[in-house]
Amino acid sequence: MNGRQAFRVVGGTRVRRGTTLAIGLGLLGALAGCGDAGGVRSDASRSAEATATAATATSTPTNGTVATKVAEGGLVDGKHFGYIRAFTTGDGTRTMAFDQATWLTGDEATAAARAAGDIGPDEPVPNDYYVTNPDTATVTLPVDPDVTVTRVDCDSGCTGNAPGRIEDLVASFGHEDESTLETPYRGARSQYWVTTAAGVVTHIDEQYVP
To answer: Is 1 part of a structural domain of the chain?
Structure first.
């Protein structure tokens, strides 16, 4: 975000070297203060132009989440990792365009990164995480008016689960280039966990990457 993130391309995949708040592109050099050696992310995870699709795509359940996009254009109820590409508000309702991805850690992350050729056969994955996003299509999800929002707070050490407000999160979209270490919200540049119940988003939690 502040030009301090570095990437290298390996086998058509962009490999990030620079701390990120898992929020799409991570937390600018902010996370330099928290450690500036980011994880690895596929090129597809960077696409913000994807549009909704009716196709069904299911990835391997990992780390407690099942990445399943359903044909109806929604998600199975539960907690899902990915990217919020945009919010739309009107007529007293709010929806989000959500691009689901898969968050891997530990041995799963290392194995996936090696299989993709992003790291060598004897290398561990940087920062112990790896994000895959082969299907960058978005699904449109209604957002509960009383949705619970948590964010990453870097005022004193970059920690997650700080209380947030949906209005402020929505307002941050479109202003990502203005983000700094002290910025409380990072819009589409971040990565999030979205929880749905009865097809409605009830929780939005920004992901922190050490």
So the answer is: no
Q: Is 11 left (phi over 0), alpha (psi -120 to 50) or beta?
A: left
> How many domains does the structure of the chain reveal?
1
Q: Is residue 123 part of a domain?
A: yes
Is residue 94 in some structural domain? yes
The answer to whether residue 174 is domain-embedded is yes
Hey, what are 14's tokens? 């962009």
Q: Which residue range is the domain that position 73 belongs to? A: 6-206
Question: pLDDT for 119-135, tens place per residue?
Answer: 999 999 999 999 999 99
Strands 40-41 and 129-132, sheet pairing: parallel
For residue 12 the two structure tokens come to 């058509």
Half-sphere exposure at residue 3, Cβ-oriented, CA atoms within 13 angstroms: 1
The secondary element (H helix, E strand) that includes residue 110 is: helix 106-115
**Mean pLDDT along residues 172-180:** 83
Work out the number of other CB atoms within 10 angstroms of the CB of residue 177. 9
Which residue is it, tokens 């280039």?
A: 177
65 DSSP 8-state letter: B
pTM of the model: 0.68
Instruction: Look at residue 210 in the predicted model and tell me its pLDDT.
Output: 65
Question: Which amino acid type is present at position 5?
Answer: Q
CA gap 115, 193 in Å, rounded? 25
Dump pLDDT digits (tens) for 142-166.
Answer: 999 999 999 999 887 777 889 999 9
Neighbours of 74 (CB within 10 A): 16
Q: In the block, which residue shows the tokens 């790896």?
A: 130
